[in-house]
Amino acid sequence: MGQCIEEIEFTIFDTETTGLDPQSKDRIVELAAIRIRDKDRLAYFDSLINPGRAVSFEAFKVNKISEEMLFSAPSPSEVIPKFMEFIQGSYLCSYNAGFDLSFLNNELNLLGFKEIKDVLVVDILKLARNTIPNLESYALWSVAKSLGIKDVQRHRALADVELTLQVFYLLNDIIKQRLGQPVKLENITNI
To answer: Which of 76, 94, 125, 155 is catalytic?
Structure first.
């Protein structure tokens, strides 16, 4: 049978960006992650990134990351390789994984590295839709609220990773209760 998720290392990650579309030259301005096994937090990763371009007013309104904050931040060529080393040997998790992966893969392409393709990525948004159907909204803050989490979504990468991690744990608890047994990897990926 499949591997219990308590035995697996996951990296929950999030990005903040200059805008919504990497194909329009939007870039990552903040990247954060927490590496876990079961309920143990193994390591943290958190960095601002100087994207070498302006942050859109719309993005600033959401994440409050100003160009002044990024002026002395490290470049993508300094941060992205460290992040890739950080995630090595773990499964990735993200809330709305397609968005975060598109930006991460764009940064990898710009640096001349291979995209992330052969790594299992758990999309916690899809997991939420499958586990708690019929919510009015599946925004991270809305799912967190429906699960009784009091923290608010701050739209800063590490804070959103913390919130996503809480959601991940509670969704897995729901699945475990429904199954009446420990959650296997296929229970959270085959959705």
So the answer is: 155
Quick one: pLDDT at residue 117? 86
Cα separations in angstroms, 35 against 46, 58, 67, 177: 12, 30, 29, 24
Contact 149, 170 (CB under 8 A): yes
pLDDT value at position 74?
Answer: 98
Report how far residue 36's alpha carbon sits from residue 40's, in angstroms, rounded to the nearest whole number: 5
Q: What is the pLDDT of residue 2?
A: 81
- For 95, other C-beta atoms within 10 Å of its C-beta total 28
Q: Which CATH number fits the domain that encloses residue 56?
A: 3.30.420.10
Q: Which domain holds residue 170?
A: 5-189
Cβ burial, residue 141 (10 Å; 0-12/13-18/19+): middle
Report the number of distinct structural domains present in the chain. Answer: 1
Q: Do 163 and 144 form a contact (C-beta atoms < 8 A)?
A: yes
Task: For residue 28, list its beta bridge partners.
Answer: 17
Q: Is 155 a catalytic residue?
A: yes
pTM of the model: 0.95
Segment-wise mean pLDDT, segments of 10 residues, the chain, 191 residues? 89 97 96 97 98 95 96 98 97 97 97 91 97 96 97 92 98 96 91 69
β pairing state of 28-37 and 91-94: unpaired
